[in-house]
Structures are given as structure tokens and as C-alpha cells.
């Protein structure tokens, strides 16, 4: 069965629900990490501090970055202030709480606040250089790829540590 794109498809529809699904799936991965640590009787700090390479962020920073990518993009596209979450998480439970706060923010945004998102200039300081994007370029060329980079890397860290997760865990349920 094919579904044509709704005529009212908006920046809200191609951002917020995508971010919610991705973060919900990341939360499920972290739940599996908790069960893995308990089953194997390993300290959760082994997982939260794990990284794929010495010059890459650890799991904590990957989850924080995914949260930041989602909330920052949604705030910028909707013309809202970006909520500030201090990067103080050190446990899987604290990472889950951060995801929940991010989901709460995303769920609070009214669809109509995204009406001018495509044309809204997004000004960012990137490594000391000010860059201006259209909402379109920001969403599709930076924000979505950045979000999925950090979620994929979090998945890869957990998988590398032995957590029994697979593609279906990353993609999540299609019954949602």
C-alpha cells in the first residue's frame, strides 16, 4: 500500500516525530544496556565510559549529543529558546532521564510554531566560525545527520561492549 505525502507535510512532521522515534529507540537500547550490566554483573560505568576509539566521545557524550541535536534543532526551527541541560550524567539512569526531558520538550512544541521554519535563518557558531543556514539546509544537511551519527555511535558502543542488540533494536517497532 502506498501513502502519498500529505499536502500539509511540514517541518514539524519531518523533524519532531523523527527525533521522538530516534530518541525513544535510543532509550530502548539503554534499557537493554541496564539489563546486560545486571545480568553480567558488570559496573555500568564500564558501559557509560566506553568509546569506540580513543579520540571519540564516550557513550555518555553520544547520548548527550543526540539529545542536544534533537532539542536544538526543534527549538531553532520553531523559533524557541534552546533548553539548557547541563552535561552532568554519569549513569544509564541519568541518561534515560535526559532523554525523557528531551522528549518532554519535543512533545511540548506546537506544530504551528514550525510554519516559517524553512526560511528561518539559523545562525550558529561552528568551531569559531559563524555560519548561517536556511532552516531547510540546517535540518537536512546538519541536524538530522548529526542526530543519527550520535545515535548510531551510541548503538555501536553498546554493541561493541557485548550488549545483545541488533538492527531491529535500532529501528524500533513499526507498530508505533
In short:
This protein is mostly helical. 56% of the residues lie in helices and 6% in strands.
Strand order of the largest sheet: 1-2
What is the typical, i.e. mean, pLDDT?
A: 94
Number of alpha- plus pi-helical segments = 6
Shape: globular
Q: How much helix, percentage-wise, in residues? A: 55-70%
Which fold does the CATH topology refer to? Four Helix Bundle (Hemerythrin (Met), subunit A)
Written account of the structure:
The chain is mainly α and 176 residues long. The chain has a single domain (16-166), classed as dinb family like domain (Four Helix Bundle (Hemerythrin (Met), subunit A), Up-down Bundle), CATH 1.20.120. Helices cover 56% and strands 6% of the residues. The chain is built from 6 helices and 2 strands. Strands 1-2 form a two-stranded antiparallel ribbon. Strand 1 and strand 2 form a beta hairpin. Helix 1 runs parallel beside helix 5 (135-160).
